[in-house]
């Protein structure tokens, strides 16, 4: 049995589906039981735990062969990352007491850096908090999620343009489908190792905004072009009402655009998924064409 945190999310769901398909036991950890009914129907065991509740997490992590953990998506975090710090502390306490045989933790490309990461800095903090645990742990540093590009489908359909914060428009960055992340983590959970592992994961190729525009144009059968959003407009566009949150998002994008946020390389393991960006976008462009 493997404990999977965030099973109602994209990566957690992909992991659980892969494990269940292989006939493995899954303990699906959720905050809301109503949202996990489908997993119970598929044969998963249910555990109710908030990601900041160390006691409930400890119970969920006890008696399993391995644990998958992640940080909830705080896109407008407090400037001091208070939310991420609370989750990281609870996870560390729960793992330390439950002592599962191994842990796999979702992180991000660039998380090796201490600064200049924007909202990815939350994952640097998570890695730092969990790294000293005396159990085998693997940090999965994933590239830019391909699913993030789904936000561009309506604009491409309606206006023939996609607005890009990734710049310059011909600069490619590593991207990966969440299905490929889930497939990889399901396999890693079943491995045996000692100490700390860093595993980088990306898709079969990198993509630039111009590549995305070309793919959307092909799928929608119409011309689509990428348009760079001027840097001076970013913070205003990202305003969420949380002081400093917009600046953190801008700092993350600056990091990607400058090349600062990239894979560490060196002794890190590197995995390439098989899913092309076209495969992720295709079902949604068909739906867009019908609307």
Structural notes for this entry:
By secondary structure, this protein is of the alpha/beta class. The protein has one domain: Rossmann fold, CATH 3.40.50. It is 40% helix and 19% strand. It contains 11 helices and 13 strands. The strands form 3 sheets. It has an 8-stranded parallel beta sheet with strand order 3-2-1-4-5-6-10-13, with helices on both faces. A 3-stranded mixed beta sheet has the order 7-9-11. Helix 4 packs parallel to helix 5 and helix 8 crosses helix 11.
State the main characteristics.
eight-stranded parallel β-sheet, 291 residues, Rossmann fold, 40% helix, alpha/beta
What's the number of domains? 1
Identify the overall geometry: globular
Task: Report mean pLDDT, rounded to a whole number.
Answer: 94
Query: In DSSP terms, counting alpha (H) and pi (I) runs of 4 or more, how many helices?
Result: 11
- In total, the number of strands is 13
Estimated share of beta-strand residues? 15-25%
The assigned structural class equals: alpha/beta
> Order of SSEs, N→C?
EHEHEHEHEHEEHEEHEEHEHHEH
CATH class, anyone?
Answer: Alpha Beta
User: In what order do the strands lie side by side in the largest sheet?
Assistant: 3-2-1-4-5-6-10-13
Q: Give the distance, in angstroms, between the N- and C-terminal Cα atoms.
A: 42 Å
- What is the CATH superfamily label? NAD(P)-binding Rossmann-like Domain
Helix percent band: 25-40%
